[in-house]
From TrEMBL:
Belongs to the UPF0065 (bug) family. It comes from the Bacteria. PANTHER family: BLR1237 PROTEIN (PTHR42928:SF5), TRICARBOXYLATE-BINDING PROTEIN (PTHR42928). It comes from Pigmentiphaga kullae. This is Tripartite-type tricarboxylate transporter receptor subunit TctC. Residues 1-19 form the signal peptide. Keywords: Receptor, Signal. The keyword Hydrolase does not apply. The lineage of its organism: Bacteria, Pseudomonadati, Pseudomonadota, Betaproteobacteria, Burkholderiales. InterPro entries: BUG, Bug_dom1. Pfam families: TctC (PF03401).
Length: 325
């Protein structure tokens, strides 16, 4: 277990015989079991990351790290629960950036302010969305899909309004001018089922969700949302390449957050441990297999990324005129 003794406390002990402990001293972190909350169901990207991290952090600290899933309510249940807990770093949130970049714009009745009340410990991974279509649509390129949309009614599925898939789809439609109807599902699982079954023509869904079905030919991949091609799908163009519009980038990120009142020393200890964990070969292999790229940034860098992504998504979100509560 890691214990930090501030220099000021060492000095105080050197010059006084007072029995009272130094007021600046912080208890070792973690001082007990840690709960990691995920707003997604088991098997979703944030859940996979949380469980991979929990295993490594438990080994690092010699404490119990448990993952608890709180799906529903647009990913807002988990942050709400974290923010109601004592702000000592023993309840963490692992989730997608949209909790901060998008949800405050589309949920007006929340009991918390994610941008104000949460501090990112680290950005731990990036993930993409993939434009996939049922083979029956008979398109191999995004340009063919845009052309076909001018001739007949087409639909695309996402895991719900305001989700990464919806946002990537909106960016694609904005760039191409295509008219493709969005169909919002309650989660990526039902959306995937209906694209596979041909009830919906296409979908913008996370790489881990669709990758196995692309490999078996059950889905045709037309574009990845990131600025660089996916190592798992090197033959599939990026969003910018597929549309011919330079600079398009719908990369999404996974973060670890704590309450803003968590002691800075505890955040620093946790961030260092998270960064080490994200370099572990087992985590890298697991996330690479699922088309995610590991990171492990410092807290300040993670906060800067969130500000930049908020500015990038806000115009698109406002153009969708979403009100989800």
């Amino acid at each position: 277990m890691i214990r930090l003794t501030p220099p000021a406390c060492l000095l105080a002990l050197a010059v006084t015989t007072a029995a009272a402990p130094c007021a600046a001293a912080q208890p070792a972190y973690p001082g007990g079991p840690v709960r990691m909350l995920s707003g997604s169901p088991p098997g979703a990207p944030s859940d996979i990351i949380a469980r991979s991290l929990a295993e490594q952090l438990a080994a690092s600290f010699g404490q119990t790290f448990t993952v608890e899933n709180r799906p529903g309510a647009g990913l807002n249940l988990a942050p709400g629960e974290m923010l109601r807990a004592r702000p000592d770093g023993h309840v963490l949130l692992v989730g997608a950036d949209t909790v901060v970049t998008v949800n405050p714009l589309v949920y007006k009745k929340l009991s918390f302010d994610a941008r104000r009340d949460m501090v990112p410990v680290s950005m731990v991974a990036t993930f993409n969305q993939v434009l996939v279509c049922h083979p029956g649509v008979k398109v191999d390129r995004a340009s063919q899909l845009v052309e076909l949309a001018g001739k007949k009614r087409l639909t695309y599925a996402s895991g719900g309004n305001g989700t990464p898939g919806h946002l990537a789809g909106a960016m694609f439609l904005r760039a191409t001018g295509a008219d493709i109807q969005h169909v919002a599902y309650r989660g990526p699982g039902p959306a995937l089922t209906d694209v596979l079954g041909g009830q919906v023509d296409c979908g913008w869904l996370a790489g881990p969700t669709v990758l196995p079905h692309i490999k078996t030919g059950k889905l045709t991949a037309l574009a990845v949302s990131t600025a660089i091609r996916s190592p798992s799908l090197p033959e599939v163009p990026t969003l910018a390449q597929a549309t011919g519009v330079d600079g398009l980038d719908a990369t999404f990120k996974q973060y670890v957050w704590v309450h803003k009142d968590t002691p800075p020393a505890s955040i620093a200890v946790l961030q260092e441990a998270v960064a080490r964990a994200m370099k572990h070969p087992a985590i890298i292999a697991r996330l690479t297999e699922l088309d995610m790229v590991t990171a492990g940034t410092p807290s300040a860098e993670a906060a800067a990324m969130l500000r930049a992504d908020t500015a990038r998504w806000e115009p698109i979100v406002r153009s969708l005129d979403l009100q989800l509560d």
